[in-house]
Amino acid sequence: MAENLRAPEPPEASLNALRESLSVLAQRGQFSARGLRRARAEQVSASAPHEVLALSLADAARGALDGARPTGWRYLLEVENEVVAAAETRSDEGGRHLFAQVNDGPFVPGTVDALAAAEKAADEEERPVTFRLLDVPALYLMALWLQPDGGEGAADSRFIPIAPAPSGLEAGRVYESDEFASRLSELAKGVPEVSAADETGG
């Protein structure tokens, strides 16, 4: 990873939940991800930890990126230096970190490609850049959120949609905050609201 692009330090509780669950799954041979099925526990390593922030459909429609709420942490899983899956932990209302899932869907290679784009973008910054993950479930959208040191909120950030990105956003492209928020708003306004009380966006 480029020197100027920083992965945040995940909470120890999240790492513990991840390690314990991966070890159990490996010992039992219960990995569903194709690249992990025959891997031994000691062959699986977690890299590129990133905090996950979820944005509701209502906030997306308003372009209110700062309304995103932390929900947990995501890690890329490697076997013999090849990224084969991603794993997530979630934090509950009591602040506990719990293992959530292992996934080897299209967002995994998409994340690898987006990180490559993020490294190039970070090299153009004079300040170090920290990356997080923005998740908008109602739009089936994930994007890297690049925050330069000293920046304040989404206005000072840039965003890189992860493939597969919804129509209207280009995967791997670096968007300035205003343009990203505007396109996100257009996409969200095209989705029927579930109910007035919906807080998750689906």
The portion of residues assigned to helices is: 25-40%
**Could you spell the SSE succession in H and E letters?**
EHEHEEEHEEEEH
Label the structural class.
alpha+beta
* Tally of discrete structural domains: 1
Computed CA radius of gyration, to the nearest angstrom? 17 Å
Mean pLDDT: 88
How much strand?
A: 25-35%
Shape type = globular
Structural descriptors:
26% helix, nine-stranded mixed β-sheet, 4 helices, 202 residues, alpha+beta
Please, could you describe this protein's structure?
With 202 residues, the protein is an alpha+beta fold. The chain has one domain (5-189). It has helices at 12-28, 57-62, 107-123, 177-189; strands at 5-6, 44-54, 69-79, 82-91, 97-103, 129-136, 141-148, 158-161, 175-176. Strands 1, 2, 3, 4, 5, 6, 7, 8 and 9 form a nine-stranded mixed β-sheet that branches. The radius of gyration is 17 Å and the shape is globular. It starts with a strand and ends in a 13-residue tail after the last helix.
In a few lines, what is going on in this structure?
With 202 residues, the protein is an alpha+beta fold. 26% of the residues lie in helices and 31% in strands.
Q: How is this fold's topology laid out?
A:
Blueprint: E1 5-6, H1 12-28, E2 44-54, H2 57-62, E3 69-79, E4 82-91, E5 97-103, H3 107-123, E6 129-136, E7 141-148, E8 158-161, E9 175-176, H4 177-189
